[in-house]
Design goal:
heterodimer; A: about 270 residues; mainly alpha; MetI-like fold; about 0% strand; globular; B: about 325 residues; alpha+beta; Rossmann fold; OB fold (Dihydrolipoamide Acetyltransferase, E2P); 2 domains; six-stranded mixed beta sheet; five-stranded antiparallel beta sheet; 9 helices; 19 strands; binds adenosine-5'-triphosphate; binds magnesium ion; cell membrane (chain A); Thiamine ABC transporter ATP-binding protein (chain A); ATP-binding (chain A)
C-alpha cells in the first residue's frame, strides 16, 4: 500500500488536477444539457444527452470559418515568433557585439509594457500599414509583444549549450550561421515546443486584439464569433458552452503534439555528464 | 612538413595578461606535451594554435605557412577537447564525417574515410549510435576519430584523458602513442599530469604563469632541470628541494635531490631523520622522513624494505645526482 507521504502527495495532485479538470468537464458536459438543468446542476452529468447544440455548431460553416481564422492567426504568430525570436536570441547568446547589453535590456523593457496602454497607437499603426481586417493586423502586434519573453527564454537556453560544441564545430569548418541551423535549432526542440505552445494558446484565446483589428465578420476569430451563439433573445449558455468546447479541441491537439518534444536532456552525450 | 612555429605571441584578456611573450618551435612529427599547473595558459596557447582564440600580438606558422589570422578549419589542424564535444544529435558516423561534409567532400569518399577511421579506432559496431549511448572511452575514441578523418597536419589535444578512470587512461595513453606512430603527424598535447607527459612526449614544454620554463626531452628534464620549478614538476614522488644551511653550504639557494637518489642506512649517513610514514608499494618503498636539518624529505628505495614509522634513519644523497640551484638562476650538479 501507499505510505503516508505518498498518499498525501496523491491527494494533493488529485486536488490540483481537479481544479483544472472539473471546470473543463463542466464546460463540455454543459453543451449537452438544457438551459434549465444548467442552472440547477451545473456540474452533474446531463439527465438527457442533447446532441442538438454540438450538432448545430459542427454543421455550421461559419463556425469552421471562425476556427480556421483563429488557427491561421495562431500558426502565423507561432512561426514568426519562433523564427525571429530564436535568431535574435542566438545573436545575443553567441555573438559579442557592441551595445548588445543595452539592446537586450531595451528588449526586456517590452516585458513590462502594459498592453492596454498600447491599444490606441497600435490601432493607428495597423491602420496606416493598411492591414486592418487582415490576419496580419492581429499577427504582427502579437509577435511584437511575444518577442521579448521568447528572446529571453531562447537566450537562456542557448547560453547553456556547451561552448566546446561551437569550438569543435568551428574546427570542422562551421560558421555562426551554419551552427545556428545545424546545431542550435535541432538541439533546442524543448524550448521551441514550449514557446510554441505558450504563444499558440495565447493567440488562440486572444480577444482584445482581434476585437480592435477585425471588423469584417468573415475574418472573425472564434473569440469574436462566440457572440453569435449566445442566442438572439436570451443567453443560451448551453449553446455557448458547446461552442467553447468545440474550440478547445485544436488547442489541446496542438499542446499534445508539442508535449512530446518538451523533454529536457536532448544534449545528453555531448560532454561528459 | 608540419612544424609549428610560435613567435613572440602575447595574449591578453581585457586587462589580464595571460601569456606575456612566448616563442616555441614544435618539430615536425613530434609528440609535444604542454604541462604546467592549472591556469598557466596551456589551453589558451593551444586554442591560439587552433585559431579559436585570436593572438594579441605575435605570429603562428604551421608547416611554414603563416596562419596567425586564418580560420580554424583552414589551418590543417584538428582538435580533441577535454569534454569530447561530440555532436549530440548526430550518430557516430555523422559526427566523424561532419567536417568532410562541410568541406563538400563526395559522399562515397566520406564513407570510405569514416570507415577507415572507425577501423583504426575499433568503432565499427558503434557507427549508428548516438553519443549518449556510448561509454566515456568510446566517446573519447569518437572524438579522436573526428580528428583523424580530416587528415590534419597537426593534432591538438586538450587534456583528452582527464575524464577517464585510471585504467582506461593508461590504455588510451598507449593507443594514442600507437596512433602517433601510425599517423606520423605532429601532435601537441596538453595535460597537467606529469606521468602522461613523461610517458608520451618526445618533447615536453613546461609552463608557469604563461612563461615557458624549459623545453626538452623527458629524460633531459628529469636529469637536468633548469630551475626548482621544473625540478619539482617532473618526477614522482617530487624531487626534494632543500633550502637553508644545507644548500648554503654548497653555495646554492636550493639543493635538489630526487627521492630515488637518496641512499638510506640504519646507522650512518649525511643526514639523520625520523620516519614519519612509510608506503609499501611492493616494487618500491616510499618513506616520508622528518630530517634534523633538511626538513621534510621523501625517500624511495627499490623493493620491499622493512622500515616503520618512528624509526631513526640516516640518508646520503648520491653523488652526481645533486642539483644546486643558485640565486642567479644558474645550475650546477654534483
Ligand atoms: N575568455 C577568457 N577571459 C578571461 N580570462 C581568461 C579567458 N580564458 C582564460 N582566461 C584566463 O587565462 C588563464 C589561463 O587559462 P587556461 O585555460 O589557458 O589555463 P590552463 O593552463 O589550460 O589551465 P587548466 O589546467 O586548469 O585547464 C587563467 O587565469 C584564466 O582565468
Ligand atoms: Mg585547460
Amino acid at each position: 500500500m501507499f505510505s503516508w507521504k505518498e498518499s498525501g502527495r496523491i491527494i494533493f495532485l488529485l486536488f490540483v488536477s481537479s481544479l483544472i479538470v472539473v471546470p473543463l468537464l463542466a464546460t463540455i458536459l454543459g453543451g449537452f444539457k438544457s438551459n434549465g438543468e444548467l442552472r440547477v446542476s451545473p456540474f452533474g452529468l446531463p439527465q438527457e444527452w442533447d446532441l442538438q447544440f454540438y450538432g448545430e455548431i459542427l454543421g455550421d460553416a461559419q463556425f469552421w470559418r471562425y476556427l480556421w481564422n483563429s488557427f491561421l492567426i495562431s500558426i502565423m504568430t507561432v512561426v514568426l515568433t519562433l523564427v525571429l525570436g530564436s535568431m535574435c536570441a542566438y545573436a545575443f547568446a553567441q555573438v559579442r557585439f557592441f551595445g548588445s547589453r543595452f539592446l537586450f535590456n531595451y528588449l526586456l523593457l517590452g516585458l513590462m509594457f502594459p498592453f492596454a496602454a498600447a491599444i490606441m497607437p497600435l490601432f493607428l499603426t495597423v491602420r496606416d500599414l493598411g492591414i486592418l481586417d487582415t490576419p496580419w493586423g492581429v499577427v504582427l502586434p502579437q509577435v511584437g509583444f511575444g518577442l521579448a519573453f521568447s528572446i529571453m527564454f531562447f537566450r537562456t537556453f542557448f547560453a547553456q549549450m556547451p561552448e566546446e560544441l561551437f569550438d569543435a564545430a568551428r574546427v570542422d569548418g562551421c560558421g555562426y550561421i551554419q551552427f545556428f541551423w545545424r546545431f542550435t535549432l535541432p538541439l533546442s526542440t524543448p524550448i521551441l515546443a514550449t514557446i510554441a505552445t505558450f504563444v499558440f494558446v495565447q493567440s488562440w484565446n486572444n480577444y482584445l486584439l482581434p476585437l480592435i483589428m477585425l471588423n469584417d465578420r468573415e475574418g472573425y476569430t472564434w473569440t469574436l464569433g462566440a457572440m453569435d451563439y449566445r442566442g438572439e433573445y436570451a443567453a443560451e449558455w448551453n449553446r455557448t458552452l458547446a461552442f467553447v468546447s468545440a474550440t478547445l479541441a485544436p488547442a489541446v491537439v496542438f499542446f499534445l503534439a508539442a508535449q512530446k518534444y518538451i523533454v529536457a536532456g536532448l544534449t545528453g552525450g555531448a560532454v561528459k555528464g | 612538413m608540419a612544424e609549428v612555429q610560435i613567435t613572440g605571441v602575447n595574449k591578453t584578456f581585457g586587462t589580464v595578461e595571460v601569456i606575456p611573450n612566448l616563442s616555441l618551435t614544435v618539430p615536425n612529427r613530434s609528440f609535444s606535451v604542454l604541462v604546467g599547473p592549472s591556469g598557466c595558459g596551456k589551453s589558451t596557447l593551444l586554442r591560439m594554435i587552433a585559431g579559436l582564440e585570436e593572438v594579441s600580438a605575435g605570429s603562428i606558422t604551421i608547416g611554414g605557412e603563416d596562419v596567425t589570422h586564418a580560420e580554424p578549419s583552414d589551418r590543417g589542424i584538428a582538435m580533441v577537447f577535454q569534454s569530447y564535444a561530440l555532436y549530440p544529435h548526430m550518430t557516430v558516423r555523422q559526427n566523424i564525417g561532419f567536417g568532410l561534409k562541410l568541406a563538400k567532400t563526395p559522399k562515397a569518399e566520406i564513407d570510405a574515410r569514416v570507415d577507415e577511421a572507425a577501423e583504426i579506432l575499433q568503432l565499427g559496431p558503434l557507427l549508428d549510435r548516438k553519443p549518449k549511448q556510448l561509454s566515456g572511452g568510446q566517446r573519447q575514441r569518437v572524438a579522436i576519430g573526428r580528428s583523424i578523418v580530416r587528415k590534419p597536419k597537426v593534432f591538438l589535444f586538450d587534456e583528452p584523458l582527464s575524464n577517464l578512470d585510471a585504467a582506461l587512461r593508461t590504455q588510451m595513453r598507449v593507443e594514442l602513442a600507437e596512433l602517433h606512430s601510425k599517423l606520423d603527424a605532429t601532435m601537441i598535447y596538453v595535460t597537467h599530469d606529469q606521468v602522461e607527459a613523461m610517458t608520451m612526449a618526445d618533447q615536453i614544454v613546461i609552463m608557469k604563469a604563461g612563461i615557458i620554463q624549459q623545453v626538452g626531452r623527458p629524460m633531459d628534464l628529469y636529469n637536468a632541470p633548469d630551475n626548482p620549478f621544473v625540478a619539482g614538476f617532473i618526477g614522482s614522488p617530487k624531487m626534494n628541494l632543500i633550502e637553508g644551511p644545507i644548500a648554503a653550504e654548497k653555495g646554492a639557494k636550493v639543493l635538489g635531490v630526487r627521492p630515488e637518489h637518496i641512499d638510506v642506512s640504519p646507522d650512518a649517513g649525511a643526514w639523520k631523520g625520523r620516519l614519519r610514514h612509510v608506503e609499501h608499494l611492493g616494487s618500491d618503498t616510499v618513506a616520508y622522513v622528518e630530517a634534523e636539518q633538511a626538513g621534510s624529505l621523501t625517500v624511495r628505495v627499490p623493493g620491499e624494505v622493512n622500515m616503520n614509522a618512528g624509526d631513526d634513519i640516516f640518508m646520503t644523497p648520491r653523488a652526481g645526482s645533486i642539483h644546486l640551484f643558485a640565486d642567479d638562476g644558474s645550475v650546477t650538479r654534483a
